[in-house]
Design brief:
Elements lengths: L11 E6 L26 E13 L6 E13 L2 E13 L16 E16 L3 E13 L6 E15 L2 E12 L8 E11 L1 H11 L11 E16 L11 E15 L5 E18 L5 E7 L2 E11 L1
Antiparallel strand pairs: 1-10, 2-3, 2-14, 3-4, 4-5, 5-6, 6-7, 7-8, 8-9, 10-11, 11-12, 12-13, 12-14
Length: 306
């Protein structure tokens, strides 16, 4: 039964800076310990792109690679996101769930609107946040698979900038079927702040306080899992008006660079595993599951705040 999607993240973030008083040095971890929506009177833009290399299916000779791009716009307590995943098929006639030479699907789109509900600190060392969310994911016809729910998290300051936290999301989809009811995500996170690691590296002699005083550079490792549901088009050669669930886990290593208060960049290689494509009919009833072999990929992200 597919009643949920699972995300499990164990992340260690190392952010190096060269000067303890430099602008941008953060005393508390930010990655996944901040809500995705923040109160701001300025517009913030984020664009990212990722690539998953070609890999074959375990039940056939065909293969697929994926290029994904997305853009986020933040203003006030709201965030609007749009993403598209482009699938490039290899030897499609050998793909077990394909029909002839027609690609099972080419582009899958998703649109999300979030609003911040809570973001509070309690008992000095604890923090929690909650966002409301509506989403739409589809191959061709908007709105496709419509969902509504919440995402949020809770974090605890273990010691001097070291934090551990739990994040989660629950989304109910529109199909009325026990096989395709909704999505649930959760993550477990461990992180260290920029200023804490900066002090450690200074003590170890890794950083030169004078040479690197204006640099804000970081490094992060992430282990994640995801399962995203899309509504297929009415003329889909796979399942007309059906659904596909894209399942994968990812191990990534990322270099982060913050040149000034407006810009930030992230870049790194990724390894994708435990991948599946799950197919459902138009009522959300499970039809079949197809495993995809592991593949390497890469990720790039740029952010700008006005």
């Amino acid at each position: 039964m597919r009643g949920y999607c699972v995300i499990l993240s164990l992340i260690l973030i190392w952010n190096t800076s060269a000067f303890a008083g430099a602008a941008g040095l953060n005393p508390t971890p930010g990655f996944m310990f901040s809500p995705s929506t923040t109160v701001s009177e300025t517009i913030r833009l984020k664009a990212d792109t990722s690539f998953v290399g070609a890999a074959g299916f375990s039940d056939g000779a065909g293969g697929v690679s994926v290029l994904r791009s997305s853009i986020d716009v933040d203003y006030s307590i709201f965030r609007f996101s749009y993403g598209v995943s482009h699938f490039m098929w290899d030897n499609v006639k050998s793909v077990s769930f394909a029909t002839g030479s027609a690609a099972p699907w080419t582009d899958l789109h998703d649109v999300t609107l979030q609003a911040r509900l809570f973001d509070n600190v309690f008992l000095d060392d604890w923090r929690y946040w909650v966002n409301g969310q509506i989403s739409s994911s589809f191959e061709a016809d908007f709105p496709g698979a419509v969902g509504a729910g919440f995402d949020g998290g809770i974090a605890y300051d273990l010691w001097n900038g070291w934090m551990v936290g739990l994040t989660g999301k629950t989304i109910a989809l529109n199909p009325l079927s026990q096989d395709l009811f909704g999505d649930v995500e959760f993550g477990l996170v461990l992180a260290v702040s920029q200023s804490t690691l900066h002090d450690i590296l200074l003590t170890m002699g890794v950083l030169d306080k004078e040479k690197n005083r204006d640099d804000v550079v970081g490094f992060s490792l992430a282990l994640t899992g995801s399962d995203k549901t899309y509504r297929l088009s009415p003329d889909s050669p796979v399942r007309s008006n059906g659904y596909v669930g894209i399942v994968r886990s990812t191990l990534g290593a990322y270099l982060d660079y913050v040149p000034d208060k407006h810009w930030s960049f992230s870049l790194g290689p990724e390894y994708h595993y435990a991948r599946k494509y799950k197919l459902y009919d138009s009522s959300g009833k499970f039809h079949s599951s197809h495993s995809v072999r592991d593949a390497f990929g890469g990720y790039f992200r740029g952010r700008y705040a006005f």
